[in-house]
Amino acid sequence: MRLENIGLRYNGGPEILRDVSFSLDPGAFCFLTGPSGAGKTSLLRMLFLALRPTRGLIGIFGRDVTGVARRDLPQFRRRIGVVFQEFRLLDHLSTFDNVALPLRVAGKRVESYRSDVMDLLQWVGLAGKAHAFPAVLSGGEKQRAAIARAVIGKPELLLADEPTGNVDPILARRLLHLFLELNRLGTTVLLATHDRALVAQANAPVLHLERGELRAA
Questions:
Q1: Residue 104: pLDDT band by 50, 70, 90 thresholds?
Q2: Contact call for residues 160 and 192 (beta carbons, < 8 A)
Q3: Angle (CA) 13 17 19, round 5°
Q4: Among 38, 72, 166, 213, fewest CB within 10 Å belongs to which?
Q5: Element (H, E) at 17
Q6: How many angstroms separate the Cα of 207 from the Cα of each of 152, 153, 196?
Q7: What element of type H or E holds 111?
Q8: Of the candidates 151, 138, 208, the residue with the CA atom closest to the CA atom of residue 184
Q9: What is the DSSP secondary structure assignment for residue 61, as one 8-state letter?
Q10: Model pTM?
Q11: Are 34 and 40 a contacting pair, CB within 8 Å?
């Protein structure tokens, strides 16, 4: 991943991201920090190709994606996993079906992925909740299900937007260890958080956004 002089503004207003430049090598783990409103979510949305920058260059997987055609977006997004702070689980689907949704959308048959989904649920500590629906899951269980859904397709890049913002410190550490283990297995991880205590628990580089600009952490 490589960003060069990225700028972003909405509807002709002031820039909310200014001259953002950084790169991540394959297999890297990096924190993205900054207060609420600093632009972390907007930056992650650009990296997921849900938002185009006003100016600058974004290179992902060796290709400039700032001008990629809409019809080509799915092939890039399949290589990227996203964990949202608000979970975004579908209430009418079980934990198993929520996690398996990316595979189902890709046209795979349940027989081909059932064991993979159950193995992943076991890994995140939700094997016993495979048939439970989101309404009966705790906040921490929903977040772990969201992480499992983000990685079931074995993404090369994982983007996490405040994934520990709705859980207690003990569970936050457990979630961090899940992300670190995913990284150890080869996934590049960019984890956005405002929790400095969480950052202190991992020996990893930090990108700090302040008023739309990258500054020293």
A1: very high
A2: yes
A3: 120
A4: 72
A5: strand 15-23
A6: 27, 27, 12
A7: helix 110-123
A8: 151
A9: T
A10: 0.90
A11: yes
Q: What does the alpha-carbon distance between residue 83 and residue 167 come to, in Å, rounded to a whole number?
A: 14
Beta carbons of 29 and 203 less than 8 angstroms apart: no
The rounded distance, in Å, linking the Cα atoms of 73 and 153 is 16
Which single residue is written with the structure tokens 């936050």? 172
CA 112 to chain centre: 25
Cα distance between residue 173 and residue 159, in whole Å: 18
∠ CA 90-94-97, nearest 5°, is 80
CB atoms within 10 A of CB 53: 19
- Residue 110 scores a pLDDT above 90: yes
Measured CA to CA, the distance from residue 40 to residue 98 in angstroms comes to: 26
Handedness of CA 203, 29, 31, 170 (dihedral sign): negative
How many C-beta atoms surround the C-beta of residue 95 within 10 A? 28
Residue at token pair 């890709």:
106
Q: What would the pLDDT profile of 49-78 be if each residue is shown by its tens digit?
A: 889 999 999 999 988 888 788 888 888 888
Amino acid at 149: R
Bridge-based pairing state of the strands 29-33 and 188-193 = parallel
The C-alpha atoms of residue 79 and residue 62 are separated, in whole angstroms, by 13
In this prediction, residue 171 carries a pLDDT of 84
